C-alpha cells in the first residue's frame, strides 16, 4: 500500500548501510570552494559515480524535493545500484520499471506498475534519476500530505481521465484484495456505497 511504501522510503534515503557519500564530520567550510573541485570531491565521495553533480545541481535538487543534499546522494547511490553498468555508461540513463520494481518498498506493492508509470516523465514506466528522485521525495516523510494525496489520486486513476470512476475503484479494490478477491457482487456493492 502507499502507506507501507511511504513508511519505508525515508529510511531508505537515510540507510547507513548504503555508505555515507559525504562524511558528516567534515565541515563544509574546509571543502574546496571552487565549484569544479567541490564537484570532483562529491564524485570522489560517491565512489566515482558518473553522476557528476555540481553543487548547483545538488542545490537545485534540494529546492525541488523534500530531501537534504545527503539524502539526494543516498537516493542516487540507490538508483545506481539498480543497474550500475547503465548508470556508469550514461548519467542520464532510464531504468526500466522491472528494475525499479525490485526495490523492497515496491516489490510487494500492488500498485508498483502504476507508481512507475505515474512518476515516469516519458509515461512508459522507465525512470530517469530525476524521476526516481521525484518518486522517493513524494513518498518521504517530509512531503506534505497534499502532495501525497495528489500522487495517490494519479496512481488510482487507471484510465487517466482526471476522475476516479467506478472502474478505477473496482481495479483499486481488486488489487488491494489480491488473491483473496471479492466477488463482483461484493465489489459492486462497495462501489455503490461510495457513489
UniProtKB/TrEMBL annotation:
Residues 113-142, 144-179 form the EF-hand domain. The keyword Calcium applies. Keywords: Calcium, Integrin, Magnesium, Metal-binding, Repeat. Gene3D superfamilies: EF-hand. InterPro entries: CIBP (IPR051433), EF-hand-dom_pair (IPR011992), EF_Hand_1_Ca_BS (IPR018247), EF_hand_dom (IPR002048). GO terms for biological process: integrin-mediated signaling pathway. One of its GO terms (molecular function) is magnesium ion binding. The keyword Repeat applies. PANTHER family: CALCIUM AND INTEGRIN BINDING FAMILY MEMBER 1, CALCIUM AND INTEGRIN BINDING FAMILY MEMBER 2. This is Calcium and integrin-binding protein 1.
Amino acid at each position: 500500500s502507499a502507506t507501507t511504501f511511504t513508511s519505508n522510503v525515508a529510511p531508505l534515503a537515510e540507510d547507513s548501510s548504503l555508505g555515507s557519500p559525504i562524511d558528516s564530520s567534515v565541515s563544509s567550510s574546509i571543502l574546496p570552494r571552487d565549484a569544479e573541485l567541490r564537484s570532483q570531491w562529491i564524485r570522489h565521495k560517491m565512489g566515482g559515480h558518473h553522476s557528476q553533480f555540481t553543487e548547483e545541481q545538488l542545490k537545485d535538487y534540494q529546492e525541488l524535493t523534500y530531501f537534504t543534499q545527503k539524502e539526494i546522494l543516498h537516493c542516487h547511490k540507490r538508483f545506481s545500484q539498480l543497474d550500475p553498468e547503465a548508470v556508469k555508461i550514461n548519467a542520464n540513463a532510464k531504468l526500466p520499471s522491472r528494475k525499479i520494481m525490485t526495490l523492497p518498498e515496491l516489490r510487494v506493492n500492488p500498485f508498483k506498475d502504476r507508481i512507475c508509470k505515474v512518476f515516469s516523465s516519458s509515461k512508459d514506466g522507465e525512470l530517469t534519476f530525476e524521476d526516481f528522485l521525484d518518486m522517493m521525495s513524494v513518498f518521504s516523510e517530509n512531503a506534505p500530505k497534499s502532495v501525497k494525496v495528489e500522487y495517490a489520486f494519479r496512481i488510482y486513476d487507471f484510465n487517466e481521465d482526471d476522475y476516479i470512476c467506478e472502474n478505477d475503484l473496482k481495479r483499486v479494490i481488486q488489487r488491494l484484495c489480491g488473491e483473496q478477491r471479492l466477488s463482483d457482487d461484493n465489489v459492486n456493492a462497495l462501489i455503490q456505497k461510495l457513489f
